[in-house]
Amino acid sequence: MTELIVVLGPTASGKTSLALDLAERLGGPDRTEIVNADSMQVYRGMDIGTAKIGRHEQRGIAHHLFDVWPVDHAVTVAEYQALARETIADIGRRGRRAILVGGSGLYITATLDDLRFPGTDPVVRARLEAELADAGPIPLHRRLRALDPAAAEAILPTNGRRIVRALEVIEITGEPFTATLPDRARPVLPAVQIGLDWPTERLYERIAERVDLMWAAGLVDEVRRLRPQIDTARTASRALGYAQVLAFLRGEITERQAREDTVTATRRFARRQRSWFARDDRIHWLDATRDDLVDAAVRTIDP
Fold first, then answer.
1. How many other C-beta atoms lie within 10 A of the C-beta of residue 47?
2. CB 108 within 8 A of CB 80
3. Under a CB-based contact definition with an 8 Å cutoff, are residues 192 and 116 in contact?
4. Among 55, 65, 77, 212, fewest CB within 10 Å belongs to which?
5. Around Cβ 247, how many Cβ atoms within 10 Å?
6. Integer Cα distance of 108 and 188 in angstroms
7. Under 8 Å between Cβ of 7 and 286
8. In 3D, which of 45, 42, 79 has the Cα closest to residue 63?
9. What is the pLDDT of residues 95-107, one digit of tens each?
10. What is the pTM of this model?
11. Tens of pLDDT along 165-198?
12. Residue by residue, what is the 3-state secondary structure of 121-141?
């Protein structure tokens, strides 16, 4: 019996439904438990905008790592890694099968693979962040390319936060940032990874439909309620939907523009998710449109 199953894919691809169907097919509440690998669903109160599963939708299956931290806490990947591995180990000790489900590629990689997290230096970090604020990410990305071409290739030139972190690690350790990246040939937690995806145009339609549903369900009110905590939260305030609604609440854009911007940003994020997962040849991809989707997933897990 496979110890760990992973259900991953871009946003709005149907991962939650597939994970629940698999959990039921593989023994239900007495044999399976689900572990969250979505970097925003770990926050308490961020429910509508993250499409978080409600308790009444969980079919009696135990769910872990949802609503763990307050929205004003900037969760680190290292924090998530430690908690996810311990949770999965505990599920195994109780003789059950863990299903890790989500679209946060870095969280999944950190859980499965030997991904290390060097310490931080506040002085170095502050200096690099000041440079980022002053000149933007492009000059820093050029510096990273000169010091560690492989890292520069893996990090988008616009991702200032990751560029700063890579340069900080290089300066602190004297080693390339890529030396801290995961070795997929030697996973810490062997797993069967099932990737779920749709034809691009249909996925984009599903994203637009999901955003419409979020608005109808009260996303604006949810963000308004969380605003005292989330407005200055470094991580949660940048979440898809939340960043756009905050801009609307601050009077920077109209509500209609916030809605359209959320669709656009989510589609862009789905492209980035696909690019991340495409680098991992261990993933078994399934077409979400197939009629025998759950059967195909079960055959992938237990051939």
1. 20
2. no
3. no
4. 55
5. 15
6. 12
7. no
8. 42
9. 999 999 999 999 9
10. 0.85
11. 999 999 998 888 876 666 666 789 999 999 999 9
12. CHHHHHHHHHHHHHHCHHHHH
Q: For residues 43 and 71, what is the distance between their CA atoms, to the nearest angstrom?
A: 5
Q: What is the CATH number of domain 201-272?
A: 1.10.287.890
Q: Which residues, 6 or more positions from 28, have their beta carbon under 8 angstroms from its beta carbon?
A: 59, 60, 61
Chain centroid to Cα 208, Å, comes to 19
User: Would you call 288 helix, strand, or coil by DSSP?
Assistant: coil
**Kind plus residue range of the DSSP H or E element containing 168:** helix 160-173
SS3 label, residue 214: helix
Q: Three-state DSSP class for 95? A: coil
Q: Where are the domains of the chain?
A: 4-115+189-198+282-301, 122-180, 201-272
Structure tokens at 173: 């350790």
Tell how strand 32-36 and strand 4-8 pair up: unpaired
Return the structure tokens found at 193: 């990874």
For 4-115+189-198+282-301, CATH gives 3.40.50.300
Contacts of 10 (CB under 8 A, 6+ apart): 103, 197, 203, 269, 270, 271, 273, 274
